[in-house]
Structure to design on (228 residues):
């Protein structure tokens, strides 16, 4: 599958660059517990939301942030790094704001959409293939020890063209369990190779913001834009 941009992406900077997750069947889940799911076509962020993008949201909406996050958002050197320190509610509020500005429905991906975008139609273990490569991501093996710019590993892109889907920062997804907890995906720079396998989902407290959790957007594509 050749990665490609969505036909009519939002023009607003907050929903700036999308790649297409084609409609179809995807093999998901860990070894021994695989399942096949059918998904609709959506646009998904090529990169996680950056500090610069989150700063624009905070500046326009006045959403409160703590001192540590405010400092990161103000640091020019970190503008292109993935935004972290956000709760699930913060992530959903960002999506709502981006959607209002772009005139499209912007939301968090479901866990299935996220995993399908990371693994592609062949169900690979990591976004680039079945052999781990520390040079294609930010993990413990890579030796970065902190977040890296979202465009730091173009060779680590998934089959649909999404980048930073293994390591760097965890990403909120929309899945909720009966106890009210949610899931994060992708692993972070603090995880080892197996911890960033594309099928891994970690339960997370939706009210807890951490320095290793950010977000990526999905933009729904109206049926009128679906391919024949």
């Amino acid at each position: 599958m050749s990665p490609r941009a969505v036909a009519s992406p939002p023009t607003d900077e907050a929903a700036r660059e999308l790649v297409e997750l084609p409609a179809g069947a995807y093999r998901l889940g860990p070894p021994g517990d695989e399942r096949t799911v059918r998904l609709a076509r959506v646009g998904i962020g090529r990169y996680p939301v950056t500090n610069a993008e989150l700063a624009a949201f905070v500046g326009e909406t006045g959403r409160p942030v703590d001192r540590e996050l405010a400092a990161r958002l103000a640091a020019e050197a970190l503008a292109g790094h993935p935004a972290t320190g956000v709760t699930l509610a913060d992530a959903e509020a960002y999506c709502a704001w981006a959607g209002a500005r772009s005139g499209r429905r912007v939301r968090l991906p479901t866990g299935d959409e996220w995993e399908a975008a990371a693994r592609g139609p062949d169900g690979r273990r990591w976004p680039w293939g079945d052999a781990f490569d520390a040079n294609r991501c930010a993990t413990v093996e890579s030796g970065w020890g902190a977040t890296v710019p979202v465009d730091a590993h173009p060779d680590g892109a998934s089959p649909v063209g999404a980048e930073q889907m293994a390591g760097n920062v965890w990403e909120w997804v929309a899945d909720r369990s009966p106890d009210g907890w949610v899931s994060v995906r992708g692993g972070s720079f603090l995880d080892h190779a197996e911890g960033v396998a594309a099928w891994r989902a970690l339960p997370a407290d939706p009210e807890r913001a951490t320095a290793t959790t950010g977000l990526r957007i999905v933009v729904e594509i109206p049926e009128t834009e679906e391919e024949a």
